[in-house]
Automatic annotation (TrEMBL):
Limits of the DUF218 domain: 58-174
A Pfam match: DUF218
Name of the protein described by the UniProt record: YdcF family protein
Organism: Luteolibacter arcticus
Coiled coil regions in record: none
Amino acid sequence: MRVPQKPSWKRWLKRIVVTVAVLCLLAVAFVAWANFAALHAGRGVLFDDLSKVPAGKVALVFGTDDRFQGRENLYFRYRIDAAEALWKAGKVRLILVSGDNSEKYYNEPEKMKAALIKRGIPKDRIVCDYAGLRTLDSVVRAKEVFGLDDMLFVSQRFHNERAAYLAKANGITYCGYNARDVAGQGGLKTKLREVGARVKMWLDVRVLGTRPKHLGEKIPLPE
């Protein structure tokens, strides 16, 4: 006696469901791995306590705009706060502010420089990198354009972790000082975007071999 078989469309549907489930699990595992890689790169070298930050470094402050949707951007303020604290504690000898200046009326580095000067930091101790369009660009340009093989990242911890992974992949010695994070809905949205940013980070380094959009001639930093 023959056992009735399921209709062929049911067998195909089952295969499709199983395949989709496997692909979803692999995607989740990949996202988790990319995020863990950044977390691991920052372990033990990103500091919340100012007293633990090694002295004598050049600080690389990652850019963002001072305004967001018509309001003060707290990410900007807290990064400036952190850079000021490092300078006044004698932890850094120079500050490199790196950000986006790709549009005529949008200039993150100049805004950061102006804010730091208002905090009492000498303008000749601040250098602008106008082509830090992405974190990858800022990190690689700091090495290849400005000649830094050892640097101190200044941003929120989640951002410093991603920068740490990029620095490690490019043979850079690094540590970081974590600026105060942003709470509330705005902070949550940024954290969700960061998940995707870390996937892009891993692909840029391990698959795509992404390079900065602009390099150009070397720019010596002041002593």
